[in-house]
Amino acid sequence: MKREHHHLHPNPQYTQQEVDPPSGGSCSSAAATAGTEKTKMWEEEEEAQDCGGMDELLAVLGYKVRSSDMADVAQKLEHLEEVMGTVQEDGLSHLASDTVHYNPSDLSTWLETMISELNPPLSNYDPQPPPPPPPQQSSVTSLSIDDSFLAPAESSSISDVYSSSHHHQQQNMNTPRVFEDSSTDMYNYDLKAAIPGKVVYNNSSLNQAHNIDSSSSSSHRNKRLKLKPSSINGPFGVPIPSESSSTRPVVLVDSQENGVRLVHTLLACADAVQQDNLTIAEALVNQISFLAVSQAGAMRKVATYFAEGLARRIYRLYPQNPLDHSFSDILQMHFYETCPYLKFAHFTANQAILEAFEGRKRVHVIDFSMNQRMQWPTLMQALALRPGGPPAFRLTGIGPPAHDNSDHLQEVGWKLAQLAETIHVEFEYRGFVAKSLDDLDASMLELRPNEVESVAVNSVFELHKLLARPGAIEKVLSVVKQMKPEIFTIVEQEASHNGPVFLDRFNESLHYYSTLFDSLEGSLNTQDKMMSEVYLGKQICNVVACEGVDRVERHETLNQWRNRMGSAGFVPAHLGSNAYKQASTLLELFAGGEGYRVEENNGCLLLGWHTRPLIATSAWKLDCKPAMLAL
Amino acid sequence: KEKRPKFCINDHVDILIEILKRLDGRSLGVAASVCRLWCNITRNDSIWEDLCFSHVSPSPPRAVRPVVVALGGYKKLYMGCVRPVQSRLGESERVGRAWTRDVEVQLSLSLFCVDYYERLGGGGGGGGGRFGGDASASSLMFLCKPVNV
């Protein structure tokens, strides 16, 4: 795990710096010198195998600590930290001048010694669990940290802290220090959060910390700010000995309130970014990160991805455009398996194509999304089983270039050919590599005359990428028209992520991806789920952080596509009831269909989660089909 | 007094087949454990064919058989697709939907095909990453997983 060491300063420096909460400026992470060891200890404790006597990992570093004593030692370290914090500035100097040095390798006893040395005023340190602070103005829930990120890890609400800190202005001029979070930082702050002690170092309030007195709960709250910038990537289950938390006052937080606050902060940050107000935006991004932690499940993940996108936009660390297609293919496969969206897309599109090809003896499908190879086995099988026997099936796949120069399109073709042979379907395959669809030209495809061969064109989640470049979509649509397809099936995300105003796009995509992530929550295979989330996270990053040609996830709504297709000369072909039936049955099969809804909208099918439609399948044919002889 | 010859079903295999054809999946499995003869009969794929399509009112076109056989046979179709599909859908409330069975069958066939496809080894090496020689058919896994209640 990466950690930021360079922000650790010895205690005395805190008193000098003031951090104004709303415009965070350059916040630096705070920890006492003992804190380094403490965090290190916690980290190692997490990693330590239970290996009998001495803890192995610490032994490597020269510390002799028994594994069974770990929790105890950790507590003592924290205690020491507190002690050192309370001691007045000159109180520590004797440590420097003292010629007695204690050997810290036996950590336990060393700590004891240090504590007793520094410890005159702390005789009232009470290791028993304090009475819980009486409910203050905002509602509170109890802190319990389980082992995985799924547990609601609460942190106190920022506004409470800030309000109490203002209240204490006369007592201490320090405002709580905010941990810096760079969203790409892998610092495992989870550990810090597990320590329900001080993360904010506020000198005078530290004194109060040890007067475990319920009446000073407001000062408790001041300290209880668990600043926990989260790391972006996935779960970090830390087996935290939460038993030690019983000796500390606990923070109570309302996570639902935090959820609302989180959304507001996200939007505020986006607004700041739009207005180019980057200092505010930066502070808000930090806030988002640790507010996100207070949420559980989908909201947390969505918030972290959006925070990452915003951070990239603020710091201008634009993501490289996805060049590694094999990786994104893998991600897409997991997405395919985790949730029914892609399956729905394939089945409905196939149904439309099947119906359009009725009675034809030779059919040709041109697939713009050849990375979606799972669509074709089922079409082939349906063609094989259709009454009257299968037609001759020709497939032209168009896909992006593979980074490792492997001919993945040919591999797919080979597998399909094997399947075709097994089920006795005459099959022909051709793969085209094209960096972008508008590089295509109808003449490249070697189309045969229409009476001989019927054409269908298929595009799943590909057309919106063309909107990044002016003129591209028009060119592609005209090329499609040249192919004279019987049917053109389009599956696209049902969302408006291509508006001119950044804030609107942000808002829309926040709701869209929240819904999408919610629907993923029910899936049981955690690895698949995680990969799907990464897949979607990349899309989020693209929508939020990229601009211009790089921003390829330019989703548009069904109506927008209808207009576009209409003006390009296509008329809608209604998806029949068979498609609807198949889609509904498919959804029932999948997780009992809970939450997923199929809707029919003027001949198009929409799949959504509860009330929110998420993807739309539509089919189009040419406006007028001139009676033609082969031209 | 003339003793009537005892009737032993095992002497009349054609009748036995007719009877076994009408059993449901579980009973067929049980029947397979009765004796060697019965076991051999149940191994015969055509018995499973009726099991798969008995509910479909117009029986499926003849073209189906070679396809199913080529993709792995009726028993596999039943065990892998038809049974999970039926049991999964049977759980949910379906009121008067006559078309459901047809769609179920279609879906089962599609999934069966996908399963076969996924098990295909890679062609010119690799075969698309995880599908190359992957024993477990990922697309059908969702059928095996417990449904979120």
Automatic annotation (TrEMBL), chain A:
Regions of compositional bias (Low complexity) in chain numbering: 23-36
Residues that span the membrane, as ranges: none
Start and end residues of each stretch annotated as VHIID: 332-397
Region (SAW) residue spans: 545-621
Subcellular location: Nucleus
Residue ranges constituting the Transcriptional factor DELLA N-terminal domain according to the UniProt record: 55-121
Gene3D superfamilies in UniProt: Transcriptional regulator DELLA, N-terminal domain
Keyword entries, A-Z: Gibberellin signaling pathway, Nucleus, Transcription, Transcription regulation, Ubl conjugation
Ranges of compositional bias, category Pro residues: 127-136
Motif position, LXXLL motif: 463-467
GO BP term (any one): gibberellic acid mediated signaling pathway
Pfam families, per database record: DELLA, GRAS
Region (Disordered): 1-50, 118-142, 156-180, 209-246
Region (Leucine repeat II (LRII)): 411-443
Intervals of motif VHIID: 363-367
One Gene Ontology term, aspect cellular component: nucleus
Written domain comment of the UniProt record: The DELLA motif is required for its GA-induced degradation.
Protein purpose: Transcriptional regulator that acts as a repressor of the gibberellin (GA) signaling pathway. Probably acts by participating in large multiprotein complexes that repress transcription of GA-inducible genes.
Similarity comment text for this entry: Belongs to the GRAS family. DELLA subfamily.
Protein name listed in UniProt: DELLA protein
Native source organism of the sequence: Cephalotus follicularis
TrEMBL record, chain B:
InterPro entries reported for this sequence: F-box-like_dom_sf, F-box_dom, SNE/GID2
Biological process, per Gene Ontology: gibberellic acid mediated signaling pathway; regulation of gibberellic acid mediated signaling pathway
Tree of life domain: Eukaryota
Occurrences of domain F-box (ranges): 13-51
GO CC field: SCF ubiquitin ligase complex
PANTHER family: F-BOX PROTEIN SNE
Protein name as catalogued: F-box-like domain-containing protein
Organism: Cephalotus follicularis
